[in-house]
Amino acid sequence: MSVKMASEEWGNLAVEEPRSQDEIEKKAQDLLSQMTLKEKVNQMAGDLSPVLDGIPMLWAYNYRPMTAGENKRLGIPGIRFTDGPRGVVMNHATCFPVSMARGATWDIDLEERIGDAIGVEARSLGANFFGGVCINLLRHPAWGRAQETYGEDPHLLGEMGAALTRGVQRHVMACAKHFALNSIENSRFKVNVKVDERTLREVYLPHFKRCVDEDVAAMMSAYNRVNGDWCGQHEYLLRKVLKEEWGFSGFVMSDFVYGVHDTRSSAMNGLDVEMPFAQYYGGKLKRLVERGIVPETVIDDAVMRILRQQIRFAQVGDPQRYGPDSVASETHLALAREAAQKSMVLLKNDPTTGAEKPLLPLKIPTGGRLALIGELADKPNTGDKGSSKVRASHVITPLEGLKVAAKDFEVIYDPARRIESALETARQAEVVVAIVGYTYEDEGEYFTKPFSPVVGGDRQRLTLHQHDEQLIQALAQVNSNLVVVMMGGSAIITEAWREQVPAILMAWYPGMQGGHALADILLGRVNPSGKLPCTFPRTEEQLPFFKSDVDEIIYGYYHGYRLLDKSGKSPAFPFGFGLSYTSFNFSNLRPESTDVPDDGVLKMKVDITNTGDVPGEEVVQLYVGSQGLPVDSPLKVLRAFERLALQPGETRTVEMSVPAHELAYYDVQQLSWVVASAVYEVYVGSSSASSDLLSTRFHIA
Ligand code: BGC
User: Model pTM greater than 0.90?
Assistant: First the structure.
């Protein structure tokens, strides 16, 4: 591993003192003016060779940063790309829980700290660019890369993506991806997503805009088409919306290898960098400029965007923190454990027959036995093995975590290859913990590797594997103290067995410290506080249409909780839902004023009391809706949230605010945002279920 200090890394761009905006501009202009056309065009593509680097990469992907635009003559280091989002994909970096799990923490501060750790590790491993702020909206839980994003809601996605960006950008450039509407995996290279303007603006783009407002350095275009045009050459998305309307000052990078289709269209329509090799840019782009087909001003604009960001980041960071010891350091492992603890969602926790208290946290008598069942209990199951794979040097499995934690009881393990054998083990124990769910073989990035079978891709089922379902049903018959722990990247349908078990915990892919975190939760050393970042439906019929192998699909306005609210149906577990070992009471919801000007701010207060007998954390969620708008609209949409910790008996008043302009709808006639004068309902509580929400009204004048 080579660790370089700041000045060496940044070549001619390094400075002692931070540069002002004007100085950055001057420096970029100065470099641009010294470049030949060939050098300019070189800035706009990955430096890798398709043959010399591309072929070895099939076996050793993401071992080193992938560079673009290195220019030794002018001392420009170029972009040194590394991937994410589960952590840094090089060396043995810290493997955090996947983004969907982190979405379930609803913890902005934690996500920023994870971003900071990722930034430190990226820099320590020679990268200056992190391509792992994945904020595609989870429209349907079968999406193979669901685990790489933060859930189904634009507000949650935007806030989590912005937090990761803030943390990462203390050290390296961050890149938000995949712009836009990339949420079917197997068809990603061909699918045309059709979407109307209002849906695009209100549902699929707000979280990207949020990251642009956070000053994210780069945006990666998606592979798919939107309304007929490839995202890597989409004039409307790249030029008009992103760069002109939103004022994005960073650069746009293509998704890798298959993200560009035409030299002229991509260059003209705002794609600044082709990754990771020059297939359509490089010499081809240079010739188009020489023939006058692509104006040199277009090239200059792209190069300036790339240079500005590199110059900006050459002065960012904390060199003392970079080095081999920072990679997977004790502090970062502790952070991975904290994230796993906060991300696990307690879905069900009933008393078993005859008992008074809920089954969890487990109370195992001294000298008693815990039967741990299922192959996944003994597997390092950290998620997808595609571009987001992080190579942790050691993953704490549930088996290891529970064994370490079991001070005065015994853990007996059965992988349950044969259900009969698992039942035998379960009969011998006071409590049974079954670990079930998915692996990288069931869901993930879609790869047809040479000489090996297809892995990952979109999920072929939303229920557990049949073996898991049969196992749970059989275990429930022999030992009623049964906890089902599910692993996976998004929603799982539990209808076949949910009523037969007292306790269910969603553990996602919990990262390299997941086994410790799981033991912490099961044994009550940590109180669960995760909340679902996506709806867990009862049936597939509760979801929008999804097809994995598809050439064209329409993305409508409704999905997730908005769709269920609209159709009046109730899911198995609602968006925002998650239980605790304590209970919370919400009361006294009050707006500061019931009349809010259209350029004003809605301010709400609510009191929350921990009514149980252990400390706990709760996520206060605020939704707003109006049925008085001139357009069809959802019952409610998440607009704010806050996580807080409360001691038993403690009451706190939480103040939340929403600027009125964030309640605007997109008017497709005027092509602009309109804050409608109407009566609005505001709902505040512990989940999106109406039974968990207090409500009141206010009026926008
Ligand atoms: C993925 C991107 C990733 C890139 C580089 C692509 O296949 O879609 O998310 O950043 O590879 O690894």
Answer: yes
| pLDDT band, residue 9 (cuts 50/70/90) | confident
Domain ranges of the chain: 582-700
Query: Is the distance from the beta carbon of residue 387 to the nearest atom of ligand 1 less than 6 Å?
Result: yes
Query: Which class would CATH give 582-700?
Result: mainly beta
Q: What is the DSSP letter of 367?
A: T
- Count of alpha carbons within 13 Å of 36, Cβ hemisphere only? 6
Residue 454 pLDDT grade (very low, low, confident, very high; cuts 50, 70, 90): low
Residue 130 burial by Cβ neighbours in a 10 Å radius (0-12, 13-18, 19+): buried
What's the pLDDT tens digit per position in 45-61?
999 998 888 888 888 88
Q: Is 255 in the pocket of ligand 1 (CB under 6 A)?
A: yes
Catalytic residue among 255, 458, 468, 565: 255
Whether the bond into 85 is cis, omega within 30 of 0: yes
> For residue 642, which amino acid is it?
E
Ligand 1 atom at minimal distance to the Cα of residue 188: 8
pLDDT at 490 over 60: yes
Give the chain's mean pLDDT. Answer: 96
Max CA separation in the chain (angstroms): 83
- Among candidate residues 146, 116, 624, the one with its CA nearest the CA of residue 384: 146
562: CB partners within 8 A, 6+ apart: 634, 635, 636, 637
> What is the three-class DSSP state of 683?
strand
Distances (CA, A) of 474 to 10, 364, 410, 486: 61, 22, 22, 17
- Residue bearing tokens 């082709």: 274
> What is the distance in A from the centroid of ligand 1 to the CA of 255?
6
Q: Which two tokens stand for residue 656?
A: 């939340």
Task: Note the pLDDT of residue 3.
Answer: 39
Q: What are the φ and ψ backbone dihedral angles of 253, each rounded to 5 degrees?
A: -115, 145
Instruction: State in Å: Cα 464 to ligand 1 middle.
Output: 28
Asked if the model's pLDDT at residue 4 lies above 50, the reply is no
- C-alpha 46 to ligand 1 mean position (Å): 13
For the Cβ of 384 lying below 6 angstroms from any atom of ligand 1, the answer is no
**Is residue 255 annotated as a catalytic residue, yes or no?**
yes
How much is the pLDDT for 38? Answer: 98
Tokens of 542: 């509760």
